[in-house]
Amino acid sequence: MTNGTITEEKNIANNSGKTVYPRHTEKIMKGNFAAAEAAKLCRSGFIPAYPITPQTTIVEELSAKVARGEMDAAYVNMDSEHSVFAAAMGAALAGERVFTATSGQGLFYAHEVLHAIAHFRLPIVICNVGRPSIPWNIWSDQSDSISQRDTGWVQIYGESSQEVLDSVIQSFIIAEELDLPVMVVLDAFYQSHTSENIWIPEQQLVDEFLPAKKSKGDEIDLESPKSIGGLVPPEHYEKFNYTYWQNINQVEELTNKVGKDFGKHFGREYKAVESFNINKNTKLVLVTMSSITTTARGVIKNHPDVGLLKLRLFKPFPKQSVLEALKELPDDAIIAPIERNFLGDNYGATIQELMRAFYNERNFKMYDFYTGLGGKDVPPLTIEKIIYKAKNNPKDVNWIDLEY
């Protein structure tokens, strides 16, 4: 993807049969540190920061990297998350490559600025470590990021810490090509504070894929002053939204393209959605995001009639990729989204988006399943319960492993 070329990198196997990636170093690393490593590899130049559990170690590690001279970046401690995103907006307007991280109430507090960043068309990339709000809770949940789905940010959910690192790199390509901000989301604690084997690409390998940020001519220039963010009359406001609409509708296709190019270059390919065991004989499809996917993938090995649809890109919702993944699925199959979010409505966010995608396209039976909210564990037995319930008189909306 750099200079119109792709370096073909195939993963190989060593004598033990283990996958090895050329020009990578294998390390044991927690998800938050993988996110910080990705920001360094992308040569992020400005990092505004404010700590909030459970993302704190991302910005702490970035602070340490800057202090050690490992990053040529400006690291600034801010006084709130609102200030963090305001500073990020200013740096991006000046043409800098910007990265930061937040979580939960921090993301909620920045809500106003999230809208501004998206509609100023600023290619900022952040990591959000998903957690809920009230009752006060710091454990894994997707209610914070999904509640911001209408701010205009692209949202990508990582299943593993490796995927988080790789997604940050890909996100800067997407953001800078379309002038849209991207939020990479990882599960609190299950990913952020859990150590995994992760392949870290060499800096030069990343530089070949993600070149230095190019000036587009509309950045802040002290030699040529301009006004930014002035009052916009109705006839022009509509034009701004139309051009945004044109670009947001390119995200799904570009996500698939960048994921494929990433696979050629690094040896690990990605798509907007991933499907497993979905064919004409599949009776039930579980729909998952993030770390629950790994558990579900293991469980369905014992259920030959159960498939799995993993949503990696969530916003904008990848309608065409979902329809393509389910094209062989019979019309009488059941769709069972697993919701790790609660947004104050009867249905969770995942089934709402699926209903929109299937409207006038497919007429599947769909039943919603809430589980794992607030970080409650979702072990294989819980997935088994969802499969059983989905096949045996499910309710419209089902709460699994609910204890009073």
Walkthrough of the structure:
The chain has helices at residues 31-41, 56-67, 81-93, 105-109, 111-119, 143-146, 161-178, 203-209, 234-248, 251-266, 292-299, 319-325, 349-358, 380-391; strands at 12-13, 19-20, 24-30, 46-49, 74-77, 99-102, 125-130, 154-157, 182-187, 195-201, 273-276, 284-288, 306-311, 313-315, 334-339, 365-366, 368-370, 397-399. The protein folds into two domains: 14-266, Thiamin diphosphate (ThDP)-binding fold, Pyr/PP domains (Rossmann fold), CATH 3.40.50.970; 276-399, Rossmann fold. The protein is an alpha/beta fold. The longest helix is centred in the middle third of the chain and has 18 residues, at 161-178. The protein is globular, with a radius of gyration of 21 Å. The chain has 14 helices and 18 strands. Mean pLDDT is 94; it is low at 1-9. Strands 11, 12, 13, 15, 16, 17 and 18 form a seven-stranded mixed sheet that branches. α1 crosses α2, α3 packs parallel to α5 and α7 crosses α10 (251-266).
Overview in brief:
This protein has 404 residues and is α/β, with parallel strands linked by helices. The protein contains 14 helices and 18 strands.
Task: Give the topology, please.
Elements: E1 12-13, E2 19-20, E3 24-30, H1 31-41, E4 46-49, H2 56-67, E5 74-77, H3 81-93, E6 99-102, H4 105-109, H5 111-119, E7 125-130, H6 143-146, E8 154-157, H7 161-178, E9 182-187, E10 195-201, H8 203-209, H9 234-248, H10 251-266, E11 273-276, E12 284-288, H11 292-299, E13 306-311, E14 313-315, H12 319-325, E15 334-339, H13 349-358, E16 365-366, E17 368-370, H14 380-391, E18 397-399
Parallel strand pairs: 4-5, 6-7, 7-9, 8-9, 12-13, 12-15, 15-16, 15-17, 17-18
Antiparallel strand pairs: 1-2, 3-10, 8-14, 11-13
